[in-house]
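Question:
Write out your own:
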Amino acid sequence: MISKGYKAADPVTKLVEELHKLPGIGPKSAQRLAYYLIRVPDEQSMQLSEAIAAVKQRIILCSFCANITESDPCDICGDMTRDQTRICVVEEPLDVPTLERTGAFNGLYHVLHGVIAPMKGIGPDDLQIGGLLERLKGGAIEEVVLATNPNVEGEATSMFIHNLISPLGIRVTRPARGLPVGGDIEFADEVTLGRALEGRQEF
């Protein structure tokens, strides 16, 4: 039995605190992960440390689409076989590989890195909206697909972007309602996503 005065070693406490900051990691999960890392061989814990360091050192944002990449432009923006007249706007980098697996879209992407959420202090200037508008100035883009998540924040963000794009005369569409309301693109299955993209509608 652990006494009420028991206090974990400072490095352990710090590790638990940092793990608890990760999305979806509660205090109990953070503790379990911390004590798991203590038990694993040094080599395994160093591999994790090196992987995290490599991501922070080598990963950058593509200067065109703002997706995460090792090279600029990213592989998608640099692929001239893709449809250069269409851009699919998504909330997070995780959404790009999810949509790519459907095989239903062969255009370009633009990653916002979030959504407008006033209650969290996130406004339009905190997102990659300016970069999107810059891409639309050349006149080569014929369609923008607003593939934000079908929840309150995602809908508000799509509406805001739609209002900015409308005066430019560019076709604005959204995935058909095959996506569950309140769900995230990241967790949708490929068939549902594929049908939603193929049946996209005018905004």
Remarks:
- The helical segments are 10-20, 27-39, 42-58, 95-100, 129-136, 152-165, 190-198.
- The radius of gyration is 21 Å.
